[in-house]
């Protein structure tokens, strides 16, 4: 196994830690940051470890962002939908609460899995995508 430089290791950690930007007021900051890190390391021959971790982190953040966006649009449609009767209004509120609870669970999972990925990169373990659509590949 080739040795992994400190720079390679640091960029791998940054890629996963960028997922914590989900708590900023900038929409999709987690996705943008992981994409920029992946762009930074994808062509570097000296950073194969960071390239693999950046691809895994971006794929995970892209999947998370896609699920949250589609879910938010669906929640908005349910909430703004049939508002003409009391029963429909109560049903909308119940689904809105379920949707917000699911959003909270997804965001907590994003934070936990981002931290686990950063720890794995720090311990020089191989990159692993937990649940992610493979949008980008780790190889050049």
Detailed description of the structure:
This protein has about 140 residues and is mostly helical. Helices cover about 70% and strands about 0% of the residues. The protein contains four helices and no strands. The protein is elongated, with a radius of gyration of 18 Å.
How much of the sequence lies in strands comes to under 5%
Helix content: 55-70%
Average pLDDT metric: 88
Structural class: mainly alpha
User: What low-confidence regions span 5 or more consecutive residues with pLDDT below 50?
Assistant: none
* Outline type: elongated
Q: Determine the N-to-C terminus distance.
A: 19 Å
Instruction: Give the topology string: H per helix, E per strand.
Output: HHHH
* DSSP E strands, number: 0
Contiguous helical run count = 4
Largest sheet: none
Radius of gyration: 18 Å
List keywords for this structure.
mainly alpha
State the gist of this model.
The protein is built from four helices and no strands. By secondary structure, the protein is mainly alpha-helical.
